[in-house]
Every structure is written in structure tokens, then in C-alpha cells.
Design brief:
Layout lengths: L5 H7 L12 H10 L8 E5 L7 H6 L3 E6 L2 H10 L7 E3 L11 E7 L7 H14 E13 L10 E4 L2 E3 L12 E2 L3 H10 L2 E13 L5 E12 L12
Parallel strand pairs: 1-2, 1-4, 2-3, 4-5
Antiparallel strand pairs: 5-10, 6-7, 7-8, 9-10
């Protein structure tokens, strides 16, 4: 099934959308550390670019930017901000088809993780097929199974919830909450090896206690396994 939730288009159609319009610091950090070679010959693909928060940073490196976003409202807002990229900002579902080739860096800030397991697995396989041999996948804010919302709402599959009634995920469709082993399994089965994995846990004390838990990760290609075990962990 298609992974894109129409709830995102409703969110982005509001000019006061929750989407920031500046680059995410964790993504900047990962690019600086794991892709310091980025230059004008580098092809960068962003999955779920929203209204283009990360575009100014990528352009500051001189790299060639391409992006796919499921929300037509978000794409229109991004194109109005970056008219010179009108042909590089595509409205589409990244879980469905490959839309770029020979990509050196794939960036994903909390986009792929907003899908159910089968859609994520298909997306990662498409990413592996799109990447250049030395390409890297930089994932920021994949939701952890330690997140306070990991057991809220309705269950779509072992790792995915939807219809979460309140908070940051209300109205946004599928939300995938991963364990460490699960992340290794789904990336490995797609032909990608996680070479860096960081856990981020933030506890709020006042006004209401909460726990926000995510992962930042870096993956590269490896030889596809001869068989893929079903992930039961």
C-alpha cells in the first residue's frame, strides 16, 4: 500500500505549518562527519523534503539537490521558495518508485519512519538501487520503540502505529517505532549496512512529563544477503 498519509498535506496546506524552514542541526552534523567530500559533483537526494528546510544547507556545499515529497502543498511552498529548483522538486511517493540514480547522498529527516514496515523495506531497497557505489544514507530522527507514543493509537504491524489520538503524531498516519535490532535487520535486508547508530532520548519534566526517543543513523551499501530472514525481533 502507499505509505503517504494525506494528513501531511492538510498540515502543509496551512501557512503556519509545524515544519521549520531552517536546516536541521543533526543532519548538518552527519553530512560534515560522514560526507566531508561533498562538492559540486555530488548528487544529493532528499526523501520527504517538506517545505525545503534542508535545501539551503545542501546548496551551500555546492552539491546538486533533488527531492521527492508526497504533499502537493509542501512542494508548492518549496518551489516558491526555491524557484531555481522547480525541476528538481518532485511531488510523489518515495515508497513506490525510484526517481533518481547514481545518488551520492540520500538524506531523510524523519520521513521514511512515517510508514509501515513493508513500505519502509521497499523504500530502503529503492534507496540501495539509487545509490552510487560509495553513496551514504543519512537518517535523522527515526522513532525508537522507547518513545512514549510507541504503544499508543492502533497497531498496523508489529512496529507501526496509527490514529495516535494526541501529541506530535495526531493526524499524521503511520508512525514506525524501531528497536536497534530491527533497524539493523531492515537495512541489511535491503543491502545496506548501518555504520553509525545513535540514540537520542529527551525527557521533559515540566509542564507534563514526556519521553521523546529517536535514532540518527548512517548506512552504506554492502552485498545483498543470499537470503533474508523475517524480522521477528
Amino acid at each position: 500500500m502507499s505509505g503517504f498519509s494525506l494528513g501531511w498535506d492538510v498540515s502543509y496546506s496551512d501557512a503556519s505549518s509545524r515544519e521549520p524552514e531552517w536546516p536541521f542541526s543533526d543532519l548538518v552534523r552527519l553530512v560534515r562527519r560522514y560526507a566531508p567530500w561533498i562538492n559540486s559533483d555530488t548528487r544529493v537526494l532528499e526523501l520527504g523534503f517538506g517545505v525545503g528546510a534542508n535545501i539551503p544547507f545542501i546548496e551551500s556545499t555546492g552539491a546538486q539537490y533533488f527531492g521527492i515529497e508526497g504533499s502537493q502543498s509542501a512542494v508548492e511552498r518549496a518551489k516558491s521558495r526555491f524557484p531555481h529548483l522547480v525541476d528538481s522538486l518532485i511531488c510523489g511517493d518515495f515508497t513506490e518508485r525510484r526517481f533518481a540514480t547514481n545518488v551520492d547522498i540520500i538524506i531523510d529527516r524523519s520521513s521514511v519512519t512515517h510508514n509501515e514496515t513493508l513500505d519502509i523495506e521497499r523504500t530502503l531497497r529503492l534507496c540501495a538501487q539509487s545509490m552510487s557505489p560509495q553513496g551514504v544514507y543519512l537518517g535523522v530522527d527515526w522513532f525508537s520503540d522507547q518513545h512514549e507514543d510507541a504503544q499508543r493509537g492502533l497497531q498496523l504491524d508489529q512496529w507501526t502505529r496509527h490514529c495516535i489520538p494526541s501529541g506530535q503524531f495526531k493526524g499524521l498516519g503511520a508512525v514506525h517505532f524501531s528497536s536497534i535490532q530491527h533497524l539493523h535487520n531492515i537495512f541489511s535486508n535491503a543491502g545496506l549496512e548501518i555504520v553509525s547508530l545513535e540514540s537520542k532520548v529527551r525527557h521533559r519534566i515540566v509542564p507534563e512529563p514526556s519521553c521523546h526517543a529517536t535514532f540518527d543513523l548512517v548506512a552504506m551499501q554492502h552485498a545483498l544477503p543470499t537470503f533474508a530472514l523475517h524480522d521477528g525481533n
